[in-house]
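Exam revision sheet. Question 4 asks you to relate a sequence to its structure. Input first:
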Amino acid sequence: MNVRETTIGFLLMALSAFTFYITRDFPPFRSRGVTLPGPSFFPRFIATALFCCGILELVQAYRQSRSAKEHEKQPAFQQVISDFIRSPGMGTMVISIIGIVAYVLLLERIGFEIMTAAFLVVMMLCFKVKPVKAVAYSVIVVIVMVVLFEKLFQVPLPPGVFHL
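Answer key, C-alpha coordinates:
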Protein backbone atom coordinates (compact mmCIF):
# COMPACT_ATOMS: atom_id res chain seq x y z
CA MET A 1 0.00 0.00 0.00
CA ASN A 2 1.03 3.60 -0.50
CA VAL A 3 2.65 4.77 2.73
CA ARG A 4 1.52 8.39 2.50
CA GLU A 5 -2.17 7.68 1.93
CA THR A 6 -2.17 4.92 4.53
CA THR A 7 -0.59 7.20 7.13
CA ILE A 8 -3.01 10.03 6.41
CA GLY A 9 -5.95 7.63 6.57
CA PHE A 10 -4.96 6.25 9.95
CA LEU A 11 -4.19 9.75 11.30
CA LEU A 12 -7.62 11.00 10.24
CA MET A 13 -9.29 8.01 11.87
CA ALA A 14 -7.25 8.50 15.06
CA LEU A 15 -8.13 12.20 15.17
CA SER A 16 -11.78 11.27 14.75
CA ALA A 17 -11.62 8.75 17.60
CA PHE A 18 -9.83 11.31 19.80
CA THR A 19 -12.56 13.88 19.09
CA PHE A 20 -15.27 11.40 20.04
CA TYR A 21 -13.33 10.60 23.24
CA ILE A 22 -12.99 14.28 24.21
CA THR A 23 -16.67 15.07 23.55
CA ARG A 24 -18.04 12.08 25.47
CA ASP A 25 -18.80 14.18 28.57
CA PHE A 26 -20.38 17.14 26.78
CA PRO A 27 -23.87 17.67 28.19
CA PRO A 28 -26.95 17.22 26.00
CA PHE A 29 -29.09 20.24 25.24
CA ARG A 30 -32.64 20.01 26.55
CA SER A 31 -35.34 22.52 25.82
CA ARG A 32 -38.92 22.06 26.96
CA GLY A 33 -38.37 18.37 27.57
CA VAL A 34 -36.93 17.73 24.10
CA THR A 35 -33.31 16.67 23.67
CA LEU A 36 -31.67 18.65 20.87
CA PRO A 37 -28.15 18.49 19.44
CA GLY A 38 -25.87 19.88 22.09
CA PRO A 39 -22.30 21.15 22.14
CA SER A 40 -20.96 17.77 21.06
CA PHE A 41 -22.94 17.72 17.80
CA PHE A 42 -20.64 19.80 15.59
CA PRO A 43 -17.31 18.27 16.74
CA ARG A 44 -18.76 14.77 16.33
CA PHE A 45 -20.21 15.66 12.93
CA ILE A 46 -16.77 16.83 11.77
CA ALA A 47 -15.15 13.77 13.38
CA THR A 48 -17.51 11.49 11.47
CA ALA A 49 -16.61 13.26 8.24
CA LEU A 50 -12.90 12.89 9.07
CA PHE A 51 -13.38 9.20 9.81
CA CYS A 52 -15.06 8.72 6.43
CA CYS A 53 -12.20 10.61 4.75
CA GLY A 54 -9.72 8.34 6.53
CA ILE A 55 -11.51 5.26 5.22
CA LEU A 56 -11.50 6.75 1.71
CA GLU A 57 -7.75 7.38 1.99
CA LEU A 58 -7.18 3.75 3.01
CA VAL A 59 -9.32 2.50 0.12
CA GLN A 60 -7.42 4.77 -2.28
CA ALA A 61 -4.08 3.49 -0.97
CA TYR A 62 -5.25 -0.10 -1.38
CA ARG A 63 -6.45 0.51 -4.93
CA GLN A 64 -3.21 2.20 -5.89
CA SER A 65 -1.17 -0.66 -4.50
CA ARG A 66 -3.25 -3.23 -6.41
CA SER A 67 -3.00 -1.34 -9.69
CA ALA A 68 0.73 -0.71 -9.37
CA LYS A 69 2.97 -3.22 -11.02
CA GLU A 70 4.51 -5.69 -8.60
CA HIS A 71 8.05 -5.24 -9.90
CA GLU A 72 8.07 -1.47 -9.34
CA LYS A 73 10.06 -0.53 -6.30
CA GLN A 74 8.06 1.31 -3.65
CA PRO A 75 9.84 4.30 -2.10
CA ALA A 76 11.25 3.74 1.36
CA PHE A 77 9.48 5.27 4.34
CA GLN A 78 12.40 7.65 4.91
CA GLN A 79 12.14 8.83 1.30
CA VAL A 80 8.40 9.47 1.66
CA ILE A 81 8.99 11.48 4.84
CA SER A 82 11.85 13.38 3.23
CA ASP A 83 9.72 14.25 0.20
CA PHE A 84 6.87 15.32 2.49
CA ILE A 85 9.14 17.63 4.50
CA ARG A 86 10.56 19.20 1.33
CA SER A 87 7.16 19.73 -0.27
CA PRO A 88 6.37 23.32 -1.31
CA GLY A 89 3.64 24.05 1.28
CA MET A 90 5.46 22.63 4.28
CA GLY A 91 6.85 26.00 5.42
CA THR A 92 3.41 27.59 5.30
CA MET A 93 1.93 24.67 7.21
CA VAL A 94 4.56 24.90 9.96
CA ILE A 95 4.14 28.67 10.24
CA SER A 96 0.36 28.23 10.41
CA ILE A 97 0.60 25.71 13.24
CA ILE A 98 3.09 27.82 15.18
CA GLY A 99 0.91 30.91 14.57
CA ILE A 100 -2.22 29.20 15.87
CA VAL A 101 -0.44 27.95 19.00
CA ALA A 102 1.06 31.41 19.63
CA TYR A 103 -2.34 33.03 19.03
CA VAL A 104 -4.04 30.80 21.59
CA LEU A 105 -1.29 31.21 24.18
CA LEU A 106 -0.88 34.99 23.84
CA LEU A 107 -4.46 36.12 23.17
CA GLU A 108 -5.35 36.83 26.81
CA ARG A 109 -2.09 38.66 27.53
CA ILE A 110 -1.78 40.80 24.41
CA GLY A 111 -5.43 41.27 23.55
CA PHE A 112 -7.81 40.37 20.78
CA GLU A 113 -7.30 43.33 18.47
CA ILE A 114 -3.50 43.28 18.31
CA MET A 115 -3.13 39.50 18.34
CA THR A 116 -5.76 38.92 15.67
CA ALA A 117 -4.38 41.63 13.40
CA ALA A 118 -0.82 40.30 13.79
CA PHE A 119 -1.91 36.72 13.15
CA LEU A 120 -3.88 37.68 10.05
CA VAL A 121 -0.98 39.74 8.66
CA VAL A 122 1.47 36.86 9.15
CA MET A 123 -0.91 34.35 7.55
CA MET A 124 -1.59 36.60 4.58
CA LEU A 125 2.11 37.22 4.06
CA CYS A 126 2.67 33.46 4.10
CA PHE A 127 0.12 33.17 1.31
CA LYS A 128 1.90 35.84 -0.74
CA VAL A 129 -0.53 38.73 -0.21
CA LYS A 130 1.13 42.11 -0.67
CA PRO A 131 2.10 43.66 2.70
CA VAL A 132 -0.05 46.79 2.33
CA LYS A 133 -3.12 44.72 1.44
CA ALA A 134 -2.39 42.27 4.26
CA VAL A 135 -2.32 45.05 6.86
CA ALA A 136 -5.39 46.77 5.41
CA TYR A 137 -7.44 43.57 5.25
CA SER A 138 -6.39 42.58 8.76
CA VAL A 139 -7.41 45.92 10.23
CA ILE A 140 -10.75 45.79 8.42
CA VAL A 141 -11.44 42.25 9.64
CA VAL A 142 -10.56 43.15 13.23
CA ILE A 143 -12.78 46.25 13.15
CA VAL A 144 -15.71 44.24 11.76
CA MET A 145 -15.23 41.51 14.37
CA VAL A 146 -15.01 43.99 17.25
CA VAL A 147 -18.11 45.84 16.08
CA LEU A 148 -19.99 42.60 15.55
CA PHE A 149 -19.06 40.77 18.71
CA GLU A 150 -18.39 43.49 21.29
CA LYS A 151 -20.85 46.13 20.21
CA LEU A 152 -23.68 44.19 18.56
CA PHE A 153 -23.65 40.81 20.36
CA GLN A 154 -22.17 42.13 23.64
CA VAL A 155 -19.53 39.38 23.72
CA PRO A 156 -16.47 40.51 25.67
CA LEU A 157 -13.21 39.99 23.81
CA PRO A 158 -9.88 39.75 25.65
CA PRO A 159 -8.68 43.34 26.22
CA GLY A 160 -5.05 42.43 26.81
CA VAL A 161 -2.32 44.81 27.87
CA PHE A 162 -3.43 47.97 26.08
CA HIS A 163 -7.21 47.79 26.81
CA LEU A 164 -8.12 49.04 23.34
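Marking note for examiners. The chain has two domains: 3-85, 90-152.
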